[in-house]
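User: What would this chain look like folded?
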Amino acid sequence: MKKNNQFFNVIICTLFIISIILSSQCSSPEKPGEDASIKYKIEAADLYDAFSNNEEEANQKFLNRIIEVNGPLASIQTDAKNNTVLFLLDDLFGIRCSLDSTYSASNKEVLIGLSPGENISVKGKCNGLQTDVQLSECVILNSKE
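Assistant: Here's the prediction, encoded as structure tokens.
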């Protein structure tokens, strides 16, 4: 009888752990991929100004939220991990958009077609201000000259 109770307890504990893992997967924060909903739409210059003028207030509004940023492309670079990074406004003091690696790999022709000065729309997760405003897991929504 003791063995049956121990076996039953192991089964119950295992099911409990599995249910916790599954529920945490279902409630994880939304990633900014192409299908994620946008919380804010803002011009690149306005976003940079918001963080430059009042970083605390800008963090409350934008930090960890999925936003769409529109503005002129300053440059396209590659980071240390060989990921594509787009800079809007300026290379040093503007918006730094780290592209989602899966998006980047499957949209090389879109990236090749971009040129500095072109206005683009990018969606990504806002990670706050360092030297520039950081967006991660970005995708390009559209580009137009």
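The chain has two domains: 1-30, 40-144. If you want, I can go into more detail on any region.
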